[in-house]
């Protein structure tokens, strides 16, 4: 049987990075930055006050009563400081030439024509120097990285209107099963709600791809081939129909098209399919919902990351707070809940592959190597997080 790492290595040879495109900052959150963001100007652009108070020439006086020679709100350019006076200044306003320190208003009587200053400041007090945050031409965000709200804000503060990001990989999703009905529809006598298409759609979106289509295929191999014929995608994901049953549509339709189907030494998610269909990479997950979630996190996430040009997420070593048994000869992906630096199985159902509802209790999948049969209390396991 092929191991998880052999399988992943092979799947990664099927994909390559998408092109780079420019997007406005308004569209940038969650995208993968592929070109460094460089500051267009120093930030702050000039020395400015960190406090509402009075700008003074620190070498030029001491506590006492001072004439206020100008008022400097933020957004207004000051005149040079008149010698022998102070200037009333607001937070963020430019320091007047000749002033080098600010007295907070709380250290004064808050006067407007004259002011009584109780504590005289040292040079530089409450002044934010030009360029202290960013330097013109300096790298503010180094690529590659997934852009968070704070990163988008840093790009805006650096004066960038657009950023260079990876084009979102376009992903087509197909699920199979006569038993499937969409959530919100009435359940027939032998029906279940389709959760795999929801998982794959949301997973692709969450990890930075764009879902181009989601189809539920019911009517056998011909319908599946028809659905595949019209697809415009960088990657195709299917779920269901890959095991040993009499109605395993995906396998039946795609073996003649050169897609490979074989077991991978893992639980859940053992029956897997992979290859290319009309040149487009395809991953065929088994239909059980936890198997789909595991296939997505273990294999599809690194493929999406490779397409986006960003490193795949690393695992976290965490301590086991409650042991469990695992199958011999297959790596196990156990849904776990995380508390501090410890983990325990997320539910009493363990890694049962049909427990879609129980997955909501999990914070990650613990990866247990194929040769382990018992995960001992106090042991360390590598845990994959479920979100980027
Ligand atoms: N005789 C054997 N039977 C099975 C084997 C085996 O080796 N020999 N492997 C088992 C394993 S492991 C898995 S995993 C499943 C994989 O089966 P399929 O990929 O063919 O998936 P289906 O039969 O279509 O469905 C399995 C299960 O999942 C439910 N399902 C399917 N699609 C959805 C969906 N979109 N949303 C929610 N739930 C879905 C379906 O109702 C079934 O209960 O095969 C085992 N059997
Ligand atoms: O491998 Mo199946 O995915 O155990 O249920």
UniProtKB/TrEMBL annotation:
CDD domains membership: MoeA
Gene Ontology biological process terms in this record: Mo-molybdopterin cofactor biosynthetic process
MoaB/Mog domain residues: 172-306
Pathway: Cofactor biosynthesis; molybdopterin biosynthesis
Enzyme nomenclature, EC number: 2.10.1.1
EC class: transferase
Pfam families, A to Z: MoCF_biosynth, MoeA_C, MoeA_N
PANTHER family assigned to the protein according to its UniProt record, in alphabetical order: GEPHYRIN, MOLYBDOPTERIN BIOSYNTHESIS PROTEIN
Role description: Catalyzes the insertion of molybdate into adenylated molybdopterin with the concomitant release of AMP.
Protein's UniProt name: Molybdopterin molybdenumtransferase
Higher taxonomy: Bacteria, Bacillati, Actinomycetota, Actinomycetes, Micrococcales
């Amino acid at each position: 049987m092929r191991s998880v790492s052999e399988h992943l290595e092979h799947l990664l040879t099927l994909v390559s990075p998408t092109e780079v495109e420019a997007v406005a900052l308004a569209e940038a959150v969650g995208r993968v930055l592929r070109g460094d963001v460089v500051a267009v100007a120093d930030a702050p652009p000039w020395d400015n006050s960190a406090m509402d108070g009075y700008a003074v020439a620190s070498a030029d006086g001491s506590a006492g009563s001072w004439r206020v020679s100008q008022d400097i709100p933020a957004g207004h350019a000051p005149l040079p400081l008149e010698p022998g006076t102070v200037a009333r200044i607001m937070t963020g306003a430019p320091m007047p030439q000749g002033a080098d320190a600010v007295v907070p208003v709380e250290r004064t009587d808050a006067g407007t024509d004259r002011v009584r200053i109780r504590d005289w400041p040292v040079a530089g007090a409450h002044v934010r120097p030009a360029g202290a945050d960013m330097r013109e031409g300096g790298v503010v965000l180094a690529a590659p990285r997934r852009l968070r709200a704070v990163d988008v804000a840093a790009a805006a503060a650096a004066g960038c209107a657009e950023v260079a990001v990876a084009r979102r990989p376009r992903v087509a999703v197909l699920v199979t099963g006569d038993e499937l009905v969409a959530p919100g529809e009435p359940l027939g006598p032998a029906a279940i709600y389709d959760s795999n298409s929801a998982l794959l759609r949301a997973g692709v979106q969450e990890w930075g791809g764009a879902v181009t289509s989601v189809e539920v295929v019911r009517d056998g191999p011909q319908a599946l081939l028809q659905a595949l014929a019209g697809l415009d995608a960088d990657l195709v994901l299917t779920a269901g129909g890959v095991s040993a049953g009499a109605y395993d549509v995906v396998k039946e339709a795609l073996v003649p098209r050169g897609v490979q189907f074989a077991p991978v030494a893992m639980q859940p998610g053992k029956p897997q399919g992979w290859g290319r269909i009309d040149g487009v990479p395809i991953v065929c997950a088994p239909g059980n919902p936890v198997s789909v979630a595991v296939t997505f996190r273990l294999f599809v996430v690194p493929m999406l990351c490779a397409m986006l040009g960003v490193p795949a997420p690393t695992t976290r070593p965490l301590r086991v707070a409650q042991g469990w048994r695992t199958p011999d000869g297959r790596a196990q992906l156990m849904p776990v809940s995380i508390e501090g630096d410890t983990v325990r199985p997320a539910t009493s159902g363990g890694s049962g592959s049909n427990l879609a509802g129980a997955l909501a209790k999990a914070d990650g999948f613990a990866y247990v190597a194929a040769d382990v049969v018992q995960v001992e209390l106090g042991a360390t396991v590598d845990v994959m997080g479920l979100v980027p």
